[in-house]
Design a protein that fits this description.
heterodimer, A: 15% strand, globular, B: alpha/beta, six-stranded mixed sheet, 6 strands, binds guanosine-5'-triphosphate, binds magnesium ion, GTP binding (chain B)
Chain lengths: 665, 237
Amino acid sequence: MRDSPDPRSSCSDARAGATTDTTAAKAAGKNGIGTMTVASENDALKRREHPKPDTSDAATTPDTMHSEGDGDERENRPPLPPRPSLLNASDRPNTPLSPTKKPALQSKPTTAISSVDIQTLAFPDGTRGTFSTPASRSVSESVSLSGLSVGQSTPSRKVSYNGNGEFDDTTSLMSYAPTLRANGDLASLLDEGLSSQSPAWKLLSSQADTVNPFESIDPQDSPLLNFSHEFDEIEAVDSKGGNEGKLFTCPAGKPIWSRHGDQNLINGYIGIIQTIISFYQEAKDPLMGFTAGGTKFVISTEGPLYFVAISKLGESDVQLRSQLEALYMQILSTLTLPTLKQLFTNRPNTDLRRPLEGTETLLSSLADTFTKGSPSALLSALECLKIRKSQRHVINNTLLRARTDKLLYGLIVAGGRLVSVIRPKRHSLHPSDLSLIFNMLFEAGSVKAGGGENWIPLCLPGFNNKGYLYMYVSFVSAHEDGEAPSERPHTAGSGRNDEIAVLLISADKESFYELKKMREEVVGQLEKNGSMNIIKSAVRQGRPSTSDIVPGTIIRHFLYKSRPNVQFTMPSFSPHFDNLLSRRRLLSLYHNLHASTHAKHSHVKVLHCVGRDSISLAWTTPFFEFYCVAGPNASRSALAQGANKVIQWVKREEERVFIIGGAVF
Amino acid sequence: MAEATAPKPSSSVKLVLLGEAASSLVLRFVNNDFQENKEPTIGAAFLTQKCNLPTRTIKFEIWDTAGQERFASLAPMYYRNAQSALVVYDLTKPTSLIKAKHWVAELQRQASPGIVIALVGNKLDLTNETSGSSNAIGEDGDEAAEPEDDGDARKVSTAEAKTYAEEEGLLFFETSAKNGTNVTEVFTAIANAIPETSLKGARGPGATQSNANRAEDQSRVNLTGPRDNASKEGCAC
Ligand SMILES: Nc1nc2c(ncn2[C@@H]2O[C@H](COP(=O)(O)OP(=O)(O)OP(=O)(O)O)[C@@H](O)[C@H]2O)c(=O)[nH]1
Ligand SMILES: [Mg+2]
């Protein structure tokens, strides 16, 4: 199955069929791979040619650096910017675009052998991310799609493109099907007739119609192989275990915080990275990122701080950058922007570790959430607890009625999902602020583990990065049958899934007792009017599975984001994505679909993607973004039908799965 | 948590916790629990726990504050109205007692004049002293410091801390949140040391206990009750 050329031909055919009216189709057809749109490719090519450092620097910088490390040592040493390859220059015109711009499609006929080229320079306008040879991109992008790795440890790895090639080539098998008929009927767009599969493939499929996504993966090949160790306390940036690291530092070069990696190693990294960064800064052309081998480095500068993400997990630049952004937001949330600035104005040498003391767990859990893969972070949207509209209405009104003068925002959150929000008319709640709060409450465990009620000063950067708000938090366990437990019993391992939190936010630091009283009022009322039980049972029930939603569907998981509401809904990860690894693979797939449909110049509205281990679909309209995945042998039309059914379900349940309008005062 | 067997007058006492290894102490007192790697407190946590004295029930309303520097400016908010304070230091850390002394000084300067302050050296289990029994030395205690064995983690001698506590008129204990040594004793001693006159019933709506026990208003404190005979009485927890 791995070596079968059939899936590829089938996907090429399909794609061509779906895009008959675009030149992209022709271009793609020629290469035997899909491309997004010609427009974006050309654009990017132009852009790539435009900034000078591109060709010249790609050729020159590695010279200054290759003494520091060699490709062959990547296994044991921090991956460093490697030697330039002579092939690069000639490859470049054929080099596919930045992964952030368009989907990764390796196995270009022109692919160079080298896996250790830097061709990835990006520019401060932010429009260009990393671009690289197909070789390195096949690591950074498609690997995550398929879950199959080309292995960081094989410098001599080849990308084969003769059709039946090696596994790393096969893994990249997918089709991105651009179409202009964005809102057409999916089923007809992706008609079964379009996918003319070879008899052999069909035979195989018929034997295993129910293969689930990622089932066929040989885990030995995966860069995610050590994924489960990613969260061990053992620090290992350079060893095989370390797939991902984030660190940030200030201009004086003091590492402030890092996730993974022991301090000595980190210090080494920082020296090198800082040298590279300042090299470009002197040239007034700040470095945004680069790729070395299979390791992607993304750099972002926020005021006095450098943030560096080092990842082998195949996120796109945009995603890594947004993760770094989230870490920065966490720092702002701790310090506020004026304080941060002041610290460095007064003493440029400031060691930020001290003021940030105690927030390490928040930063780490944030980073881990990204590493694990977070639909909420990917979609920049929130998830709500599914309850009836009328039930939510009662809860909203309970909050509104108990509202005190000092209240700014009032929220009820259950199992990391929003139950109800009340807010002043003129202020909305920024999703990134909420994700900081959710991280603190449900992931980091610092608050929850203490028990009791909490009074937490925090800055919500999306609301106002200049000052603190004060948050009253108390937990109610969904598993407690008694009423109004205020001290939640401590259970060390209790996940985020059975916790109901009442959050009351005020700008007045003296308002604790007022908000505490409001909480008592709210919880008392919710218990009286039965809402608390409704919340509890909804939490206990968890998310429905896809087959609960659409009986018999081949869809194994989906994400549906309502754009106007900035909220998303999804089914439970079980039974198909129960463990961390398969969940991460799924999220990587979503990341790729998302990146492809969100590329700047992409007009892709429907994207059908066939991989060796899964087929998937992305569909965007002004109203929603939809992503779903099924096993590799599922048929295109079944996928499309399932997608339509899910979307119909969401439409039907819209007022249950989303908070629409919300309660304002 | 034990309830009083017979209705007794009950009164709330506000207590603020400052210093290092403090949350663990209150976690032991309130939940009878211990976490080996407790995460730092963010902001402050508000907890309640009852303490049964022979003649009355004391309901502690405890503010457990975060130890990090950046929260220090918020501390006055928590000790401003407190009747008692528990200043905890980590007896395995030499600098810890110094920080505790700063807190004591600040409390003496800024908090309400009658505040009862207890100084507590926590992590007694990390010393080699075998006594699970009595390192408790009340204001009037006169136990000598136990000899320190070699190789134990103690960095602050009992004598030093105790001398300081006596000079400043503080209650003094050495405790272990991990194995529970002396934890309830600390709170009982504080409960006993609160002057009658500052004991009131519920202190307005702001101070009402969150759930179970909304009955305080009916149970006004018996101001004539004895208070000093209860030092052997443990807290009901
Ligand atoms: N062995 C031992 N360890 C303890 C004891 N008390 C606390 N610890 C440990 O010391 C560390 C810090 O304890 P905390 O109670 O969180 O200290 P804290 O003062 O609340 O810290 P902040 O909230 O950051 O101010 C934790 O890892 C505890 O497990 C003790 O009695 N014995
Ligand atoms: Mg604490």
